[in-house]
Amino acid sequence: QLEGIIIDDNDKSLETGDDSLEVTEEMMDSSNSKRGEAMASLSEGNFDEALKLFTEAIKLNPHSASLYAKRASVLTKAKMPKAAIHDCEKANSINKGSA
Fold this sequence. Notes:
About 60% of the residues lie in helices and about 0% in strands. The chain is mostly helical.
């Protein structure tokens, strides 16, 4: 059995949200709540749940570079570097200093 192998994540397409979305304060609050849940899942080592929750947070607030950067961190831990690079590029396009 091989350990530490990086999987080919070409087929892993994560949602990024609608860039034209106008984020309300309520949506931002919900996004922050999802981010908190995602961080809790991450601390428990539950990468799949953390990815799901970060994606939900991103859909609520697609203008947050830090959400993409955090999800990229999870993707790296889940050995999905191509998806992580995509999220880093997205974070960088939103805020050059974030990624």
